[in-house]
């Protein structure tokens, strides 16, 4: 199962909105077939492993990191192929988190006389699919909030200058996180101030002279006042989709990769919870958020984030620089947001800290 989970992670840049899944087929204590889900719309892990094993799959055992599907999607049900292959035992790490299908794959296999075991290294399998599990269970994607700060907790100078607080190594790591995400979320304020492209510029070497490809995340911009214009870099760059989240459409001539999405307003602003519910309904598993203090304060105050990712540079910007976080007024120490440290790692001259909110 460890090998199956490791295989599953090979698809982490390319499978969304689908989960990462790996499968290993064993017969007479030898691995005869391996496979993983490589990208959405292509063969599932079980299909690739069975195709590799061929006739050797008969009377074998399949180790699968996620319950095999028993329904038609873009590809046929895997359970039927497992039965047809002659596999007699299936070991499953964890059930499908979709409440509409969870357990149905196991029921189908058992109905056809296949011995099943469930719950092997389930935490590890869930960990590699946090966004998929959260979206299926709550309807909301996994939300990561990134901040680059100085050691005295400042995000920019008084005049707004912030390029670059952190090192190139930290910036490269940010691009890796972008590539792992289904979407990058920002605001019109960031677009107007920094005029970024917000693409994932990360390339993972997999062979001597080749690089692993990945899906370009959707660039989602909260733009309630219709401030983003066709001249901005994010619009001019057509490497991936751009969704402008607005309260009303305009009649400008937008490129094909740009879509205006109208959501119900809340006090003349975008309703954040409804926005995330909508994004979940569009198959978005992980949202990587890069924004200014207004949005990240709201996300923190509303307890909407799942991970806070801080890149801390060994610089002091001073008391006139802009602070990290604007909290609610008149709260006590016991009421402030609290976090637990998950990971601390050095990148160049900086330290990256990954934290999770404490409920």
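-> sequence recovered:
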């Amino acid at each position: 199962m460890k090998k199956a989970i490791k295989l599953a992670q090979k698809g982490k840049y390319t499978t969304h909105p689908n989960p990462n899944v790996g499968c290993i087929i064993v017969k007479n204590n030898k691995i005869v077939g391996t496979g993983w889900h490589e990208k959405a719309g292509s063969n599932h892990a079980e299909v690739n492993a069975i195709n590799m094993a061929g006739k050797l799959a008969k009377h074998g055992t399949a180790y699968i990191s996620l319950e095999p599907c028993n329904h038609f999607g873009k590809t046929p049900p895997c359970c039927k192929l497992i039965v047809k292959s002659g596999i007699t035992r299936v070991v499953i790490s964890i059930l499908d988190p979709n409440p509409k299908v969870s357990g149905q794959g196991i029921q189908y296999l058992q109905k056809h006389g296949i011995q099943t075991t469930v719950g092997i290294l389930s935490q590890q399998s869930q960990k590699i699919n946090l966004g998929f599990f959260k979206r299926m269970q709550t309807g909301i994607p996994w939300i990561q909030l990134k901040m680059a700060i100085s050691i005295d907790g400042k995000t920019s100078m008084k005049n707004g200058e912030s390029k670059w607080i952190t090192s190139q190594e930290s910036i490269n790591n940010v691009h890796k996180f972008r590539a792992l995400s289904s979407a990058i979320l920002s605001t019109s304020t960031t677009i107007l101030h920094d005029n970024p492209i917000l693409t994932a510029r990360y390339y993972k070497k997999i062979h001597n002279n080749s690089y692993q490809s990945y899906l370009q995340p959707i660039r989602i911009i909260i733009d309630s006042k219709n401030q983003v214009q066709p001249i901005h870099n994010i619009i001019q760059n057509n490497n991936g989709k751009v969704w402008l989240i607005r309260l009303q459409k305009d009649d400008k001539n937008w490129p094909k990769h740009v879509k205006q999405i109208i959501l119900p307003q809340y006090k003349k602003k975008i309703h954040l919870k409804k926005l995330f519910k909508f994004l979940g309904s569009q198959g978005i598993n992980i949202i990587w958020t890069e924004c200014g203090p207004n949005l990240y304060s709201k996300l923190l105050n509303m307890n909407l984030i799942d991970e806070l990712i801080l890149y801390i540079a060994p610089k002091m910007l001073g008391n006139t620089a802009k602070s990290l976080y604007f909290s609610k007024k008149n709260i006590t120490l016991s009421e402030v947001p609290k976090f637990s440290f998950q990971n601390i790692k050095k990148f160049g001259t900086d330290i990256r800290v990954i934290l999770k909110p404490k409920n």
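The two ends are 32 Å apart (CA to CA).
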